[in-house]
Amino acid sequence: MLINYYFSLSLLLLSSLFLLSGCELTTTPEPKGGSTSYGEYYLDLQQLTELELIAEVEELQDKVAILPSQSSKHDYDSQIKLLLLYSLPKSPIYNSFSAKALLNQMTKKRNNIAFSDISPQEQALISLLRDQLNQQLLMYNRLLVQQQEQQKIALKKRHALIDKLALLEQTIIQLKKIDQTIDEREH
């Protein structure tokens, strides 16, 4: 009977182990390449200090510098991360024009492979970034045109004031001459 008990217990444990081994804990799948998503990367960038951002910029620029000699996805990954750094307002290399130029370069037909291996969510983030950069540059251009118009108006006003000042100076000179003529007649 004791053997039957141990046999039953062993069988129960073995069958439980067999059934449980079929169960697997599910986790959120990591993006391809095992790295963080670009959205998470951007959020991580926001937490970095200026020195950490500079180090990240230098590292990515070094990786991108060797891009023409290689064409792996990791190089495109570095370009996309550099794009995010160009777009981050507190970044030491923040520049909407550079970000848009890099994005345009990466989306050329022959180079569109840069976005072919990223998830739809990542493509949506890049698309959102493109739209934001377009809007930002459009607003910047509108502001630039408005500033140029204001400068033209200010320049016209300045010239008008200079002309009025010259006219007043001539009037003062004429009045002095008249005053001097009057003084000469009285004496």
In short:
The protein is mostly helical and 187 residues long. Helices cover 74% and strands 0% of the residues.
Q: Care to describe what's here?
A:
The protein is mainly alpha-helical and 187 residues long. The chain has a domain at 35-142. Helices cover 74% and strands 0% of the residues. The longest helix is centred in the last third of the chain and has 67 residues, at 120-186. The protein is rod-shaped, with a radius of gyration of 36 Å. The protein starts with a helix and ends with a helix.
Label this structure with key terms.
single chain; 187 residues; mainly alpha; 6 helices; 0% strand; rod-shaped
Topology:
Blueprint: H1 2-21, H2 38-47, H3 50-65, H4 73-87, H5 96-106, H6 120-186
Helix pairs in contact: 2-4, 3-4, 4-5, 5-6
Average pLDDT confidence is: 80
Strand residue percentage: under 5%
Radius of gyration: 36 Å
- Class by SSE composition: mainly alpha
- Uncertain runs: 23-34
Using DSSP, what is the number of strands? 0
| Global morphology | rod-shaped
Helicity, in percent? Answer: over 70%
The major β-sheet equals:
none
User: Separation of termini?
Assistant: 153 Å
The helix count comes to: 6
Order of helices and strands: HHHHHH
